[in-house]
Amino acid sequence: MTDVTEQTERTEQTERTEQSGQAEVKQAQPPTVIVDNLHIVYRLRTGAGAGKAKGAKNKAALREQAAAAKEQQGQQGRDREPQQAGKGRASRALRRLTGRSDSAEKRGSRKVHAIKGVSFTAYRGEAIGVIGSNGSGKSTILRAIAGLMPAEAGRVYTEGQPSLLGVNAALMNDLSGERNVILGCLAMGMTPQEAYAKREEIIKFSGINEKGDFSSLPMRAYSSGMAARLRFAIASAKNHDVLMIDEALATGDRKFRRRSEARIRELRAEAGTVFLVSHSNKSIRDTCDRVLWLESGSLVMDGPTEEVLEAYEEFMNS
Length: 318
Ligand SMILES: Nc1ncnc2c1ncn2[C@@H]1O[C@H](COP(=O)(O)OP(=O)(O)OP(=O)(O)O)[C@@H](O)[C@H]1O
What we know:
Layout: E1 2-3, H1 12-18, H2 21-25, E2 31-46, H3 52-80, H4 89-98, E3 108-123, E4 127-131, H5 138-145, E5 153-158, E6 162-164, H6 177-187, H7 192-206, H8 224-235, E7 242-246, H9 248-251, H10 254-269, E8 273-277, H11 281-287, E9 290-295, E10 298-304, H12 305-317
Parallel strand pairs: 4-8, 4-9, 6-7, 7-8
Antiparallel strand pairs: 1-5, 2-3, 2-5, 9-10
Bound molecules: adenosine-5'-triphosphate.
Adenosine-5'-triphosphate binds next to strand 2, strand 3 and helix 5.
């Protein structure tokens, strides 16, 4: 198995995880993902310099605006009271506009401890729902399994290359749906011949051409639901060792949702492991046989779908 968290070697804790109760229950199938006492921490820069790269363009524009305002104020001031008017006002306005105050000039950082010591083992052939209230850590744990988040502590071991739907598809808004299908297939490791051979089938499955020739239009012309359907269609065209779907089904209409749920069942039958993050308990019920329930970054429950959903629904209604 590969350590996707790129830390040091296998720990004793992993051995314990593999020998845990879950493993005894599911020992007929080999494990595909081991999450071992995982901690994920986001670090945010605050104060001066925060969001520098992103905000630089806006700030340059704001500075120009402020300079123009200063010029105007200066002109008005000169008309009224030479030298004094406008003095200091423009720089105060600039600080207000850019959100910088003298005290905020101090550099700082804040941490968000998003995943707190989560452990579980997933097995080949399982479809696992990931549930929990907003901000409980569902997307973060999928990103960690995909190898996109470094671990603060603990490890994630995976068999094969996990694919996080929507990220691995690497779609581009300026390219047509058709070109994106080819791009997505190549990004998943298909040869150009395989990608071209799959193109029609993927577009048909996505249903984007049901109301006109949308596949030849740039993706920026698609609704969010259409884009999500195309991403799902591309990602599910390949059999994945580990496929992770984050809310993708929630955006499709009912017809597409049924089709994609059937595809998830096929993927499971073809021996992969599927993780599905969803706020729709119905999607989870229809698709998953096991559920992980996270709250505030901790694993509250891990068990059969009905058992966990019942407890979760009770918690949500209390
Ligand atoms: N890029 C980020 N920077 C800082 N904190 C983040 C970032 N992304 C998520 N978080 C924080 O990590 C925690 C877990 O977020 P995450 O997105 O994993 O939750 P979620 O269960 O997927 O939420 P939702 O159901 O609302 O999509 C939250 O407290 C969130 O504020």
